[in-house]
Amino acid sequence: MEQEDWILHLTEVRKRLLIVFAWFIVTLCVGLYLSSDILLYLKSQPLIGEIKWNVFSFTDGLMIYMKCAFLFAALFTVPVVLYQAWVFVKPGLTESESRSALPYIPVAFALFIIGVSFSYWVVFPMMMRFMIRMNQSIGAVETYGIDRYFAFLFQIVIPMAIAFELPVVLLFLTKIGLLTPQILKMSRKYAYIALTITGSCISPPDMISHLSVTVPLILLFEISVLVAGWQWRAMQRVAKLNLIED
Length: 246
Hints:
single chain, mainly alpha, 0% strand, cell membrane
C-alpha cells in the first residue's frame, strides 16, 4: 500500500474516532445529568427487597455517580461505534455486502440491551439472594456498601451483555466464510463446555441458578447455529445462481 493510501486511511480512522469521541462526550453529559434520577429509580425498584446503600468514604457517592454516567454513555455509544466501523469499511464492500452488513448494527445493539435486561432482572437477583443467604447462615451483619454493590452488579451485567452478542459474531463469521455449519456442528460440544463454564462463573453455585444462566446461553448458541445455517445455505444458493448466469 502506498504512503498516500496509508495517510488517507489514517485520516479516515481519525475522523471516525473523533465522531465516536464527540458522541461519547455528549452522552456522558446527558448521563451526568440523569445519573441521580437513574440511581434513585434503581433504588426505588428493589429486586429482592430493600437493601440500604451505605457509603464508607466521602467519595463513594461521587464514584458511583460517575460510573453510572460512564455506563450510560458507553451503552448509547455502542451503536455509533458499530455504525462508524461500517462506514469505514463500506468503500471496500460490494453494494450487496454493504446492505447485508448494515442490519448487524441494530441487531447487535438490541441483543446487548436484552443481555443487560436479562442479567439485571434475572441473574443479579439470584446472585444477591444466594449471597444474602450465605451471609445470614454464618450470622453476619448485613451492611452493604454502595461501591461494592455496584461493582458486584457490573461484574454480572457486563459479561452477560457481551455473551448475548454471540449470534451476531457467529453470523458475521459465517458471512465472511470463516465459519460453516459443519464447523459449528463439530465444535458444539466444546461450545457447550465453554458456555457451561461461563454460566458457572456468573451464576451462584446452586443447580437451579446455574441452569437458569447456562440454559439460555446454550439456547442462544443453538439459535445462532440455526440462523447461521440458514445464512450459509442462502449464500450457497446465490453462489450457484451466479455460476449458472456466468
